Amino acid sequence: MKEYELLVDGETLSRAETEVVNDPSSNQPVATIALASESDVATAVEAAESAFERWRTIDPVTRGHYLRDIAAELRDQKAIIAQRHTEETGRSLSDSERSVEYAAEYFEYYAGLTHRINGETVPLSHEEFDYTRREPLGVTGHIIPWNSPLLLGSRSIAPALACGNTVVAKPAKLAPMSILELGRAASDAGLPDGVLNIVSGSGSTAGEALVTNENVRELTFTGSKQVGLHIRELVSDRLIPLNLELGGKSPNIVFADADQEAAADGAVKLFTNAGQSCYAGTRLFIADEIYDEFIDRVVSRIEEMEVKRDSDETDVSALISPSAQSEVASYVESAVESGGSITTGGRIPFEEGNFYEPTLVENVSDNAAVSREEIFGPVLAAYRFDSEQEVVERANDTEYGLYAGVWTTDLDRANRITEHIEAGTVTVNNYASPIPQVPFPAYKQSGIGSEYATAALNHYTKLKNVRMKVDRTLR
Prior knowledge:
This protein is an alpha/beta fold. The protein contains 15 helices and 23 strands. The protein starts with a strand and ends in a 6-residue tail after the last strand.
């Protein structure tokens, strides 16, 4: 059993109130974590405030060196961080090692942009000079989800630090260890005290204390729509930037002229991390003329996937908790009750652990719960379609708009469909994962703001305009 404490102002703080972290693949305890109180969160915010003036005035290039050192430290500590990531999420060790590498890449990417946070000059009359500058916001609050904590935490922490902000992060209670290990790695890399503070705890206590603290100048949250709307309500009397990523019900559209092998590979990417991904292509729309043939390809790939209790041997990892497993099972049961059929999967394979078989559901209506609600599990629903007009209307018939996939070899069609799909990202012939260099915006109820790329630099800074009268007369 590992023991984790809070990280505040460069110091680890133990607390009498703790909670056990369980391994989702066995539901056996692997660690205890300290639970932050409201006063602990206030102390962390105070520490971040104290560090802010020092951190914001550091030369941008030097700030970039700090971020590169964090990336190097993450790689040096990859073995232990990946192990903790696997223990808290149930993902394979190789998958967790990739997560550590991705996290390091975020810090490296934004390290290279610290000196590119530029303003501009604005031409005015001969007697005036006008320029803009981008300045850090102050203390930023980051509420990090459990499904991919290290990667999703790094993608917001890295740009916030790069812009000169200080950070208070609250990892998910179900999976806090890898973020706490990130905090340790940052300290080992020499990051000044108070610049990055981590307060583990519950959403109702530590999370709300962070959201409602008036000295927090920005909030980033990834999670459910319900919690995101609650956060927006809590800060409704404060005009601060919000970055809310609130889920998706992403369509993956396969036309008759598509490369079926590649499209089938793209369709089963849903089962990565047991479908616990906000951008997963959970609704598979297949052109009627190739439907049967294409479904056979997808089914053969699903049935080749092995579900094993050993996280390093299974192709489909465990769900995060017993309640998540029960919820996924109930969605599949409701699909059958509403007239759908289970083509493959649909069972809990073991009594121990939170596993669920990769499942394909057919013959469900667009109004069924499995078609409309974010399941966050290894469940794929397939649908037939006849025309571009029809599939676009059905694909857009959702409150979400985060991600979408289009498979076609017709360039004109690809451009037509991507123009009309209501999603922040539309991939063509490649259901690709987000990467640091490209933005990750959201439409509709999937959120507001955008992580990734240079868009994050604008989010984590405020714009200032300077306009001055100048005397250009030579003396």
